[in-house]
Each structure stands twice: as structure tokens, then as C-alpha cells.
Amino acid sequence: MKQNKEGLRYPSIDALLDKIDSKYKLVYAASKVAHIIQSERLDVDAKSVTTVGQALEEIIKGKVDITFEEWTWYFSFEL
Length: 79
Description:
79 residues; alpha+beta; Eukaryotic RPB6 RNA polymerase subunit; nucleotidyltransferase
């Protein structure tokens, strides 16, 4: 089986930080979306085989709407 060796090159951290202004918020959002993908066994159209990679791809595609407010973060995820 051929492995995907993209690693952290796709999607690029710079492109992701254009979507979400903080690395910490990005990690939070990616973990939440990855949990949704895994727990609901969603079939997403992504190059990555890991759920975190798939979550990052969904964020870069703009399929995740995240609102960060003081002390509370809200997000919605649509496929």
C-alpha cells in the first residue's frame, strides 16, 4: 500500500492561519471537527487518511464556520 507522505505540507499552515488567526484556535477547531468526523463516521472528500488531516482540509475548504468569542467558542460543521 502506498502511503501518503504529504505530512504537514498540505494544507499549509500559512493557508490555515489565513482562515483562523491563531494556532491554538486552529488546533481546537481541528480536534473538534476530527472528533465529529470520527464519531459520526462521516465520509469526507479529502486526500488525507487521518481524521485530523481531513478536518484540516475541511477547514481550508471553508466547510467549517467558527466563531470565537471571549471565553466561549462556537462552531458549525457542514458536509
